[in-house]
Structure formats: C-alpha cells, structure tokens
Amino acid sequence: MSDAAATAGKDFIRTIITEDLAGGQHTEIVTRFPPEPNGYLHIGHVMSICLNFGVAEEFGGRCYLRFDDTNPLKEDQDFVDSIKADVEWLGFDWADRLTYASDYFEDFHACVVQLIEAGKAYVDSLSAEAIREHRGSLTEPGRNSPYRDRAVDENQDLFRRMRAGEFDDGAHVVRAKIDMAAPNLNLRDPTLYRIRKVGHQRTGDAWNIYPMYDLAHTISDALEGVTHSLCTLEFEDHRPLYEWILDNLDLPARPRQIEFSRMNVAFGITSKRKLAALIGAGFVGGWDDPRMPTVAGMRRRGYTPGALRRFVRSVGVTKKDKIIEMSALENAVREDLNEHAPRVLAVLNPLKLVLLNYPEGQAEQLTAANHPHRPELGTRELPFARELFIERDDFMEDPPRKFFRLRPGGEVRLRYGYIIKCVAVVRTDDGVVSEVHCTYDPDTRSGGPAAGRKVKGTIHWVAAEASHEVEVRLFDRLFLVANPDGNRDGGDYRDHLNEASLRVTTHCRVEPSLIGAQAGAVFQFERQGYFIVDTVDSVPGRPVFNRTVTLRDTWAKLERAELARIQ
RNA sequence: UGGGGCGUAGCCAAGUGGUAAGGCAACGGGUUUUGAUCCCGUGUACCGCAGGUUCGAAUCCUGCCGCCCCAGCCA
Description:
Blueprint: H1 3-7, H2 12-22, E1 30-33, H3 43-58, E2 62-67, H4 77-89, E3 98-100, H5 105-117, E4 121-124, H6 128-134, H7 152-164, E5 173-176, E6 191-195, E7 209-211, H8 213-223, E8 228-232, H9 239-248, E9 256-260, E10 263-265, H10 272-280, H11 295-301, H12 305-315, E11 322-324, H13 326-340, E12 343-344, E13 346-347, E14 350-355, E15 363-369, E16 379-385, E17 387-391, E18 411-414, E19 419-427, E20 433-441, E21 458-459, E22 461-463, E23 468-475, E24 502-510, E25 522-525, E26 529-533, E27 544-550, H14 554-566
Parallel strand pairs: 1-2, 2-3, 8-9, 10-11, 12-25, 14-20, 18-21, 23-27
Antiparallel strand pairs: 4-5, 5-6, 6-7, 13-24, 14-17, 15-16, 17-22, 18-19, 19-20, 23-24, 25-26, 26-27
Helix pairs in contact: 3-12, 8-9, 12-13
The protein binds one RNA strand of 75 nucleotides through helix 6, strand 6, helix 8, strand 11 and helix 13.
C-alpha cells in the first residue's frame, strides 16, 4: 500500500462496506465497473475504476469488468478493446470476470415476461412523443397511457411479437407499471424494452428488442452477486427504480446501490460527445492525443498508472461536486516520476557555447548519476568537448536581480562538469546572440581538486557534435478557463480552447544515451521536466519526446511575481 | 414553483455533542553541482445563513439561502 493510500483515510463507501462485513450482511464483497463501450475512458472513469477494483482488492472480494452494451446504435467493439487495455494498464485484473450485459439478454427477457405475468409491466403502443406528453412535467403529474390496462395475455403476445421482429422500431415499447403521478420521474412507468431492428456487436441478429439501462443494469448486478453497486450521483434518482426491480423480481442477490460524486479536473472536459467533437474538428489528433484527459491520452503523455492511482486516492470519495485543481494531478505525477525517472541532459532551445581555452580536438567523458537519490540506478558517461549547446534561457546579457545562471563576466557550473566564465558574446547581423564564448577552469571538474568551489548556478548542456537533434512536443492545457463545461455565461466550451496547447520544437539536442531510448521510456530532462518517448511517432534511432509535466519552477514563479509587481 | 443530492480555508478532505486532522496550492526558511528533490515553518476556516436545544454544537432541531441532477424508446 502506498503512502497516499495509508494516509487517505476511509471514505463513506468503505465505511459502509466495513460495517456490512462486520454485521454479517456479506461474507464477500463484489463490485463491478460497468462502462458503456461508446467512447474512451477518461480521468473521471479512473476514479470509478480505482474505487470498484480498489475496494474489491482491499476487502479480498471480486470486481467485474462488465460492458453495458444495451444500445447497439452507439456501441462499438473498438471501444471495448480500448477500455480493456486502459483498465489493464491502470493495473487492475478482472481475471475471469469479464462480462457483457448482452450475456444476460435472455435473462432480461425472462424477467420482463415475469413482470408482465404479474401485471407489473405492459406493452405501450404510444409514440415516443405521446409518451413524453403523457409523462407530465417536473411540477405536474403524468397521465396513464390508454394501453396501460391491456390484458396480460395481450401484453405477452405483443411482447413475443416484438421479439420476433413483427413490428418496426418505435411501434411498441414495454413499460413498468409503477405510478404516473410519482414525483420522481423515473417512476412514471419507465421504459424497459424498445424495438431496435439493428445488429448487435456481440449477439448479431438474434434480437429485435433491447433492454434499457435500468432493467439491464439492475438485473446484471443481481446475477453477478454484486453486493455494492457504486455509481455516480446522477443515478441517485434511479435508485428507487433499481429497488423496485429488485423487489418485483425473483433474483439471486440483492445489491445495494451507493452513489458518489464524479471527479472533474480543472481546465478539462470529460463529456465524450465534446471530446469526440475536438477530434472531429481536428483540434487534437485523436483519443490518444497527449492533451486529452482520456486514459489513452494521459498514457501517451507520460502519466503513469501509479501517478493516477495516487492522485485518485488523494482526492477521496464523497458526494460533493468537485473540480480538482490541475496542480493536484501534476503533483501526483511528479511524485511518481521523481522516484522512477532516470535523469538525463537535454537542451530544448540550443545556444552554442565555445570554451576558448579548451584544446581543439580534445574530448573527454564525464560521469553522471542516473538518479540523485538512487545510486543503485548507476551512472553513465557524457561526452564533453570544446563546443557545447546550452539552454538559451540560461543566458541573459542583462539579467534581472537574482538571476544566477550565465551572464557576461559571470560564472556558472556545467552540470557534472566544469565551472565556466562568460568572456564574450557573438551576435548575428540583427543583433541576436548566436554564440557565447567562455573559459573553463580545469581544476573544477566534478571530482577534481577545486570541485567544491561554489558558484551560484548550475546549468545543463550537451556536446555540440556528440549530441542528437530530436523533436520535442510541449503541451499546455486544452482550455483557457477552469470549467469549460460549465458555460456559466451561456458560452460554449469551444470558445475557451487554448490555441497554444501544443508546441512542437524540432531542434532540441539530447545526450547520446537517449538515441536508443525505447518507445514509452520516461526520463527527467534535468532542470526542465519529465518526458516520455512517444509511442506513436518515434522510430528507432529517431525518438520523439512528449513533455509529461515540467519540474516545479520557483524561478519562473519569481519572474511572474516580478512582472506583476512592475505592471 | 415537483423530486433527489450537496454546502468545513483558493482546491480537495477528516470530523458523527466536548471546543476544527491531513494533502494540494500560496508564502517564508534550511540543505543542494537539477532555482528539482528533501527538510523545517506560516492559516484566526464567522464549519452556507439565521434562530433554537444543551453546561457545551461543524456535529441535534427549525427556518432560510446557494449550487448540482432529473421530464431519452441514452447510459
């Protein structure tokens, strides 16, 4: 168990489960994660996955991965595959508990036959519009359908013929007979089955009718022996219907539905429809675009399962609407990556640096640690030479106060190498600095006689010859406002798109050890951030890097504060 | 104006009658050949508001206010 898990405390759901176990209501806990295969999993789903699989793990129970495939119009096998891959990647194991609501189509059908027999369900032949009119409104009760009191035999016959495909879509529907005046709209004779003469990705042409969510979900839970059916707040209103179904059918178990609030992360959206629209409009490259809040996107971005699980754990489970600040997610990512990512030297925006007193043609290898706190991760050799590249941002001709990187006449240490002093600047015709000339102090090499000499700053570098040019992609938030989904002022989420969310740089320079990096490998580019070798666009010998997240940057913060002060 | 939920610091979140944990953020400081990491330290949160019960209430009662969800043959 991680530290985060240990300090997270118990949420109300785990408290209920603990009590149910202690009180003998259950001897084993069974949960399920029931996605509809109609889109990619996103950060919000991660919460539900971690809760359901996590609870099963912690209490020694079982968790089903069940696809809620009751609407063949919207669902697709591709999504099934991506969801399985995502859950697995997050580190959860459903073992032999991979199921589909469609596995139970025959059971749902039998249940409805049973309800009809008991006079608790009927075939309605009103049109969809008429049913809507009869439903009433939030403040007015509904009216009974003229078909509500059809004879049991007629209902059975009609339902049989619906299944047989004798009617067109929309001709009939079967409804639960509950109460058209119920204040809870879900109880105003909810639809249980509808005709849809379309093939299903798993059952083919076997069915002409398909069950609705409430029926399918409740019965599936019961058939699988689910003890705690955990879902999000918007289903709270459905609980009375969930219980009505349980009460009126002869089922092998009685699950309890418990609702918790969804998790939203600021500056993002999780609506599948809107995410799909971003792809459709070409604003992002696909479901796995590293800027997407999808599991696939975050994976490609370099977020790790450990980071995501840590994050979810730190947020907690409650019933309060929440929008978590990005910093909380980034903190979890940094915590995880800091521990695991090997350090490496790379220059994002190169500026040529020449060591005037370093012998022409000389070259040497400097030893660098792969991780500052984990010596067992070893060291590597860094080629050093007369001509180097440093980060353009690490040199300023006329720096502000407290800038302790390189400046004319100033000294700085080259990471793992020597202390150097800037003696001259070369510029192009239009005045931009093209080269920095320095001298180095041979005694200050790491491990050398004057290695202990203190200078204010240390900067990273790469040898000019013995380094490689690579493409690096820098990402920023997709939206400019914290709650783009909220459209408080009638605005649309599309009005808030961050046009600068992707920056591609092709002239970055990395140390030679990186050239053979495997796709998916993660590194810390010292002083800059964490990067992953892109799994889609990298080719052997030519890695493309995605920046997962920057390092914390107190200098940038100082600069911003200073800027704010001046203005 | 029907029903269902929720309201503890900027964002999360403990707490369930005995006088407000923790994390993130922010702000100081120490260590540091990553301005990273690590380590210290800093918050009067009128516990949505107003009444009430009680020796004592974030916790119990009443009223009010604010926010979210529901009128798919979607899930």
